[in-house]
Amino acid sequence: MGHFGAGSFCGINQAFFMKQSSRKIAKVSFKTTLANLKPLWIYFAENRWALAAGVLSLLMVDFLQLMIPLIIKKAINLLVIQTSETGALLIRQAAIIGTIALCIALFRYVWRHLLLGHSRKVEQGLRIRLYGHIQTLSLSFFHRTKTGDLMARAINDINAVRMACGMGLVALVDGFVLGTAAIGFMISIDWRLALISLIPAPVVVVLTRMIANQMSARFERVQKSFSDLTEQARESFAGIRVVKAHQRERWEYDRMNARGEQYVGESMNLARTLALFFPLMTLITNAGLAVVILLGGRYTIIGTITPGDFVAFISYLNLLTWPVMAMGWVISLIQRGSASMRRINGILDEVPEIQDPAGEKKPARGEEEPKTPFEKAPGSIEFRGLDFQYPGRKEYALKHVHFKIHPRETTAIVGRVGSGKTTLLRIIPRLLNVPENTVFVDGRDIRKIPLRALRERIGFVSQDVFIFSDTVYNNVAFGSDRAMDEAVRQALDIAGIRDEMEALDDGLETLLGERGITLSGGQRQRLTIARAVAGNFSILILDDALSMVDTRTEEGILNRILDLRQNRTNVIVSHRVSTIRWADRIFVLDQGRLKEEGTHESLIRQGGIYADLYEEQLLGEALENGGVNSP
Q: What is the reported pTM?
């Protein structure tokens, strides 16, 4: 496949933006905006006292700001009168203004600390809630949702909500109170000038209503574009080794550049809306100021109002400029917050497909779940006529599977690629949902067992190896809270990797790279084996967990695992038939159906699918050993 040129991506972008610009902006009602933000009410209720103190401090700042024009008015009138006490009175007025300024600074610190601090608490609470809810969702959700989209919602969207709950709240309260009070003082000075200065108000209301809908829809498109950009960057960095191996750096660069241009284009559409709003607000308010200066100056000359009244009126009109500007800012922040909260609500409204049994009482946060007799059960697994079909697919992954794994038995499941082995194993810890009365663990339907109680008994090592960016020790102990130092070292011994890990610079405290990049594939697999063994689970499932090590190493590790777990249930899948021939029983799957069952010897005598797989395995080993056949 050849490189894609930047020009081709630009053409795609132009077509994309033409299509985007032709879309009709959907109207978002005020009721809908508030409905999107409704889930945040709980955080406002929790912080109500801090909010009340913060709002009170903000109102004090507004009150003190409104007092300053009155003091200036008095000072101007003193200058006009020119008495012997004017100098001393002016000093007094200056001292009062200085005192007010100090008080404003103090109360401004208080409200910024409390109100902006409240927004941070909302951010923290919402982020924890979102993360906690995502962890409860089923695997199907992650199959259809991009990681970059989740990251964008957890970072960018939550930041937008924080701004709406912080500066949005401040601007709303401040703008309303300061604006209303300023108008009241202006009317008290001269009602005619006040009416003249408010002539632009209807224009501001209409303009604000027109632009608000556009801001909400365009901001949501910006956030969607940012999600795509984040996912593109994540995917590129995660696959950097493949990119470099195929020399596709330029191709990836062009793809990223195209996503960046798309994001900038959507952002510019939003910026144009905001860029239009604020200059128009400034123009309208300054036009009103020009008229007031013209008429107010005449009123002062003819003595209708005093010079002090005129200066105070101008000061209040200037104070009114901020509420008018704040109106646009508030609308922008709230619309952004509402659009982002709508995206977050989309995740929070997701219902896990796999849930605890109805009526199951969950322990409170921080409370340990009570132990049940089920947790001490021996570990039998039974499938009763199991049919399983992945959503959106016509064919069945498993069809009428019926067999039982006895307690404390080592069972192997074999079959060709696509026979349903991995699907069957994922069903046991209920990573996939199945109909009632089809899968049982220790005689109980897995749909009626609390998920935590079920999964705490099962150690699962999948063929998709995952190592955390943490120490070797923590990666092994991760599998169980019960893992102690000696158990971790024993697990590493069983996995045949202890010496290699202790030989690292910091031994078991060595920090591993992202996804264990500093380890080989075989080391990563053995480390995940150690993680499962350290947990001392009642049931251990190994899904082709040692495919990256050689046959002899795999045999040695499995033998050590089985020696340790003689009285526990073990379920093993391996493409190497020779390594599982010592299993107590072997089940053979083919195209989702159970075809054969028995011991290694009995299945060989049958001469069926298992015998064919075994012969193919022996032939492969013979070729690997230079033509020398294995016994």
A: 0.72
